[in-house]
Amino acid sequence: MADEEKRGRPRDMAARRRVLTAAYALLEEGGVTALTMEAVAARAKVGKPMLYRSWPNAQALAMAALIEAAPDAPEDDGSGPALAALRRQVRFVVEVFASRIGRSAAALVASATRDTEIFKSFRSQVILSSRTVGRALISRAVEEGDIRPGIDVEAALDAIYGPVFFRVLVGHEGLDAGFADRLMDTVLEGLRPR
Amino acid sequence: MADEEKRGRPRDMAARRRVLTAAYALLEEGGVTALTMEAVAARAKVGKPMLYRSWPNAQALAMAALIEAAPDAPEDDGSGPALAALRRQVRFVVEVFASRIGRSAAALVASATRDTEIFKSFRSQVILSSRTVGRALISRAVEEGDIRPGIDVEAALDAIYGPVFFRVLVGHEGLDAGFADRLMDTVLEGLRPR
Amino acid sequence: MADEEKRGRPRDMAARRRVLTAAYALLEEGGVTALTMEAVAARAKVGKPMLYRSWPNAQALAMAALIEAAPDAPEDDGSGPALAALRRQVRFVVEVFASRIGRSAAALVASATRDTEIFKSFRSQVILSSRTVGRALISRAVEEGDIRPGIDVEAALDAIYGPVFFRVLVGHEGLDAGFADRLMDTVLEGLRPR
Amino acid sequence: MADEEKRGRPRDMAARRRVLTAAYALLEEGGVTALTMEAVAARAKVGKPMLYRSWPNAQALAMAALIEAAPDAPEDDGSGPALAALRRQVRFVVEVFASRIGRSAAALVASATRDTEIFKSFRSQVILSSRTVGRALISRAVEEGDIRPGIDVEAALDAIYGPVFFRVLVGHEGLDAGFADRLMDTVLEGLRPR
DNA sequence: ATCTAAGCGAGACGGTACGTCACGTCTTGGG
DNA sequence: CCCAAGACGTGACGTACCGTCTCGCTTAGAT
């Protein structure tokens, strides 16, 4: 383990970039099913063995591409009230997941084996990262007196982010800013101080 | 629509049953990826063309099998309070989706094209049917004075069922009766009369 | 055997005609591979079982269609010299086999099982019928003193008709009237009186 | 033509051999219809795509197998008279084509599309190669004074080899050494010096 | 400066499953 | 009791990707 020889030609970082870019483009164009190892190799002008050297299968590569490209949530600068920041963030999340890429991310989660490193990292960085932000904002809102103390924070986070994901995948009704707002109204009503 | 010619040999219902049973068994044993048309054909002693005559692809067949086998939600006999019935029903939904079959259903939704008849029927009968039950129970709870009038029912339903689906797929935390209860506590708090 | 019941609906002769016409048309349009039982049934507006009642398989049906449509060799009215009639007949045979239908007939022979009644009838009526005519003409030519007596007639017939069939199938060189003439020159040289 | 890129893993010659051997064996055992791509793949322990990489369809593969295995005509050492060598060679050809493999070769010619490279090569190496030998022997026989000069050599070759092929396919009468001899007697009579 | 080990692209390999086609049989309802 | 229509089990078709493997060519760190 400690040895880690480093002779020979090093990995080609430019090729790696080409691969991730190609993978992302395929996801954008045709969704999860369009991302085949063959297509990525062809588009990135790369051999298949090179892909398998870095990622064990197509899902892993897709996840890596999405992790790479995941947009950061808008920074909370702490200036305004936390509740408003939380509303803004949920709107942002809705917007991201409404795109084809968001659907791809959701579909990947649904079909993946859950015991791999890459999956866990994908889950935390792409699917759950907004939850982390939300958790911090809820804490601040409690301090600001807009949410009462003692609530079950995890359950609250589920109630906020779960429905977004649900609609992304099930598509039974639209995903837009109005939805984000109504959802927040309903949930926050249960969280405000009595 | 009214025409509907009915000449020729009719579909063989026994074979159809064998197919759906085989498909369900495969889903149970190995999840979505185990359900291949070849495997179903072999296990049901049926030719592949027969499968394609009735279902356009493996997902559609999987959905049909799940629709066929979908357990009915526990009947609400209207005897007790609606809120209690709602809690019971959410527990039931959590339990169903925690099984391999539940995960298969969720994964199918995630990967399917949404414009087909079979998908819409699958969505309403397997994924959203609990929502319908929940909607009725909320109405009754309003009449019973346990939920205040004027709330956004759809948003409330999303807040209840969304998180279940979310956890099924993302698997970031456990799915059990305790989760169902904590979730209901949080959401109902926002719905009760002021 | 002697019973020969004749109850029930009689065979539909019009349908039979439609079938043979359809089969012939398919042979003309796409050759042997285009004549499938399904295509014939569809084009003749006939059920497949009806086809199988009369012909055991596609080749048999094709043969029947070709037998039905086989052009009769030009009648030898016995007026002119037999040798000239023979030359005319060979030219005619060459012409017939140079068409797509001729090739189909040849290909059928090549691929067929040889022990069936229909094959034997096809062989004699479509492939070998010209031989019969030729045999008679050779006899007359012997009487007329243009061919010497005592030759091996069957070998001579093979030497005349074999090459035609050969070129039809192998297609190494053209099939035309000039070929027919050169062939006859060569063979007849060996048959003339010494 | 001169380019001929040679990158990537080279074709596996051992596998190629296995395929051709399997194909030949199937032809021998069951004739043309027994040679299916699936059967060859199974017997040669090879994937179907590998077959399609090298041959566009079953007929092409069959042809390749027959070309590979085609027995060379007995060498003409030039010692004896050319006419005798020609008789020997025709006997040999008759013998080869009387076998199941010979019939397969003939049937392939009959059913094939004629515009492909593989067909042309098959025709010249399997069907027409004997003709080439025969052409040379006729030339020598002319020099030796056993055949008169000025005859139409191609017509003569057709008269010799055409009937063999004819009988192979039509099977109206036996194919044996006696047939070969009688045929040669008839044809050579027309070729000898006057 | 030259080995030389590793990475590289290309692409063939044995497989699995796909979705389609035609086969030849069987089973309806209608004439 | 035949007919058309058409579903059935079978089996081959030709294609798409899978994940693994060998090639011959860079490329750069170690000798």
Report on the structure:
Four copies of one chain form a homotetramer. Chain A is mostly helical and 194 residues long. Helices cover 69% and strands 0% of the residues of chain A. Chain A has ten helices and no strands. Chain A has helices spanning 13-30, 37-44, 48-54, 58-69, 82-98, 100-111, 117-127, 129-143, 153-170, 177-191. The model of chain A has no long low-confidence stretch (mean pLDDT 90). The A-B interface holds A 32-33, 106-107, 109-111, 114, 123, 127-128, 151-152, 154-156, 158-159, 161-167, 169-173, 179, 182-183, 185-191 and B 32, 106-107, 109-111, 114, 123, 127-128, 151-152, 154-156, 158-159, 161-167, 169-173, 179, 182-183, 185-191. Chain A binds a DNA duplex (31 and 31 nucleotides) through α2 and α3.
What key phrases describe this protein's structure?
homotetramer, mainly alpha, 10 helices, 69% helix, DNA-binding
Number of helices of chain A: 10
| Oligomer designation | homotetramer
Radius of gyration of chain A: 20 Å
The helix content of chain A, as a percent range, equals 55-70%
First-to-last CA distance of chain A: 57 Å
Summarize the SSE layout with pairings:
Four copies of one chain form a homotetramer.
Chain A lengths: L12 H18 L6 H8 L3 H7 L3 H12 L12 H17 L1 H12 L5 H11 L1 H15 L9 H18 L6 H15 L3
Helix pairs in contact in A: 1-2, 1-4, 4-7, 5-8, 5-9, 5-10, 8-9, 9-10
The structure holds a DNA duplex (31 and 31 nucleotides).
